[in-house]
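Researcher: Go.
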Amino acid sequence: MEGSVLFAFGLTLFAGLSTGIGSAMAFFTKSTNTRFLSTALGFSAGVMIYVSFTEILGKSIQLLRESYGMTAGSWYAVLSFFGGILVIAIIDSMVPTFENPHEIRRVEDIRLHGQKNQKSSLLRMGLFMAMAIAMHNVPEGLATFAAGMADPTIAIPIAVAIAIHNIPEGIAVSVPVYYATGKKRKAFFLSFASGLAEPIGGILGWLFLSAVFNESIIGVLFGGVAGIMVFISVDELLPTAREYGHHHHAIYGLVAGMAIMAVSLLLFI
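Model: Structure:
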């Protein structure tokens, strides 16, 4: 059990702290590599959507049917799925549009914004984005942690997919803070620290659920995880990938993510 907890925490930490990759990209590039981000975000969405419908939701249905019977178990799994969607949708609606880290951001756009606005407004933007990322990352952290505890086979690709989708968030936080303060270290630290909400969310979820962690709880969690990841994919990743201006690259990434996820699952049969 201890080994499983450490493994799940490690995956969650890896996924959350990838915001630092986006922060580093912002400091060492003069413009956003939109082709790469479109492909990478599409790839992440493909992984999440495929594994959600082919594995995670299926495991939720299986576990809940074993606990509550065919009819009731199926209903509980479906309710868990849409419950996960409802939770992440409510969190998303609480974040103002411009401070939403999943709204499209480019390095050069924020630099231009920095030339036209006071430093205080830029700092406010960066701080609000950091808080928004923290809010989004808590349920994502719980999803990654729960998957790590229950099935490492699907937990690793989930962590990689969430890590990829955290890269633009690092850009969204670090650039405005840097142009407001002139301090790369402060901007990088704030961006890096905002990703800590992900492992914190995983640990809090584990502490809350550890006393009652059984197959029924795992089934409900898996249903919720599937809902969260599908919502993130269709509401955030794919629209953002298309808005970067490379529609076909986003679709190629989506198909590649599904294909790689499918092959990796087949290898573990």
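Model: Residues 112-117 have pLDDT under 50 and may be disordered.
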